[in-house]
């Protein structure tokens, strides 16, 4: 199975971008379309739109739509106060530092304790360092962190992909869906695109141990199905355990949905997906993609109950 990352739409025309924005707004029956809504339902990336037209509101105006009077910040759902003065914004940054009894403040601390959005500061002053400088505060020196292993970052991409039911974007990571910041992926892989390419390479590099592996499953169970003690030895060419990379391939093939009821974490965050053997391991089934299926926890439990 080949995996192809979504393309950056560098060659898409301006008119096609604008037409898709209008089409998305019509589908949602909205006169004002937010970037988050377009990210979820549009064909292209809001980043492409912003780069092409110099801002989201400018694109909306070209579509004959009303601009957003404010946008929501991902981290705290605070409005981006477009009309707030620089003085009031910097005063609030300074006030947060005073309340915390510190001579400086991180952007994360301001996001949790400030009145306005940290994104407003970035848009207004270009960087958090410039914001602190203009507010008369000391530069913020980030504590040195232990290097996060590449494997953990790639496993987190897998978790986020499964949760969303689609390829995650840098905007998703900025919005806080990952437990690691976008900077962590950038430092390790040179950018979000590099992280995605590394992830696909990691998934495709999966190697399964082969060879005859005699196993007598006298104590093990498959679901609720116990294997009789006098069961003959079964020769397997694969290991029973389904590793993360093979699991992801099965989930991707099944569109991150339960093959019985269609439940998906993208629609219901409470849904937990399992990858299960179709022909049980105890009956000679191998751990290969054609013998694996995606089931939600409820259907998987029901399947085990039926086999008793």
Describe the structure concisely.
The chain is mostly helical. It has helices at 14-27, 35-41, 46-53, 56-62, 86-99, 107-113, 118-125, 128-134, 150-164, 170-174, 182-189, 192-204, 244-253, 297-306, and strands at 213-215, 221-222, 225-226, 234-236, 273-277, 292-296.
Would you report the number of β strands?
6
| Spatial strand sequence of the major β-sheet | 1-4
Question: What ranges have pLDDT less than 50 throughout 5 or more consecutive residues?
Answer: 70-77, 208-227
CATH architecture assignment name of the largest domain: Orthogonal Bundle
Look at the structure and give the mean pLDDT: 78
CATH topology of the largest domain: DNA Binding (I), subunit A
Silhouette = globular
- Work out the helicity level: 40-55%
H/E series: HHHHHHHHHHHHEEEEHEEH
Major pleated sheet: 2 strands, antiparallel
Kindly give the count of domains. 4
> Helix count, per DSSP?
14
- The radius of gyration over CA amounts to 25 Å
What is the SS-derived class?
mainly alpha
* CATH class wording of the largest domain: Mainly Alpha
* Terminal CA distance: 34 Å
Strand content: 5-15%
